[in-house]
Write a structure and sequence with these properties.
The protein is built from 13 helices and three strands, in the order E-H-H-E-E-H-H-H-H-H-H-H-H-H-H-H. With 273 residues, it is mostly helical. The longest helix is centred in the middle third of the chain and has 38 residues. The chain is globular, with a radius of gyration of 18 Å.
Length: 273
């Protein structure tokens, strides 16, 4: 019995759903409304005191943190399609990409997403300074709380936004070099690919796919990933039209600001810095 507490558009939930789909594992579980704060309820905080999704419950055993969930599923279901090699070197290469997410890139996508689109949604729901402050204080993770405090008022003008974009563009540039000689990040399709692809989806949703015009190997990899069962069932099936529309509309409006920023950051001099 696999129970997954998730959110349709959460990048971390997309990681886990895509893995479960690619491995052919069935699951059930609630799709939490994060904008309404359902992840802050006492019931959910008992499962994950950090108040974030996803959370996997397997026969009563609770697993938190998406990358740990990915490895747990590989260990718990070894007879299904393997996405983490048994070879030490390939396992290390896979974990390298997953660790990049935990080392800052995941928080960076939160900065980009809030700056471009979600700040307007939060401002629409929490219409007074007092309501916003209550939302901030209900966020258990102090790093995410600080992101909200910076990005909700300032949007893409926040200094954190440029720093987050730079971090992700350098990751995409590293992927571009690696994918020049192989179809996937560690050669064969792996957790590394399913770990990273939700973030590429988010860039696309936010109308930041201009990145791919300068990185053809990443663009080709992204199209290959879209053909996988993991993507089709774990990500595409759950894409929420309401949020896709919101992100696309806000991203489109900000293209005059974001496109020059991307172009500047993708210059050889900037990538070498």
């Amino acid at each position: 019995m696999l129970e997954l507490y998730h959110n349709d558009m959460s990048t971390c939930a997309q990681k886990v759903r895509s893995q479960l789909a690619e491995k052919g594992l069935e699951w059930s579980g609630p799709n939490l409304n994060l904008r309404a704060g359902e992840q802050h309820t006492p019931e959910f905080l008992k499962l994950n005191p950090k108040g974030v999704v996803p959370v996997l419950v397997h026969d009563g055993f609770v697993v938190t943190e998406s990358n740990i969930i990915l490895e747990y599923v590989e260990d718990a279901f070894p007879d299904h399609k393997r996405l983490l090699s048994t070879k030490a070197a390939e396992r290390a290469r896979t974990r390298y990409w997953l660790q990049k997410l935990d080392s800052g890139l995941h928080l960076a996508i939160a900065v980009v997403s809030i700056g471009v689109a979600f700040r307007d949604q939060l401002l629409a729901v929490h219409t007074t300074p007092e309501a916003l402050e209550k939302f901030y204080l209900a966020t258990p993770d102090p790093a995410l709380r600080n992101i909200y405090r910076s990005l909700v008022p300032a949007g893409v003008e926040s200094p954190q936004f440029a720093a987050a974009m730079e971090a992700w563009l350098k990751c995409f540039a590293e992927m571009e070099a690696k994918l020049a000689s192989q179809p996937f990040l560690v050669g064969e399709l792996s957790l590394a690919d399913f770990g990273i692809v939700p973030y590429a989806v988010r860039f696309e949703n936010l109308r930041l796919e201009h990145t791919w015009t300068a990185l053809p190997n990443v663009a080709a990899w992204f199209e290959r990933m879209k053909q996988t069962e993991g993507y089709r069932v774990g990500i595409e099936k759950w894409l929420n039209p309401k949020y896709i529309s919101l992100m696309g509309e806000k991203g489109e409006a900000l293209l005059p600001r974001t496109t020059p920023l991307i172009d500047e950051m993708l210059t050889p001099k900037a990538m070498a810095a």
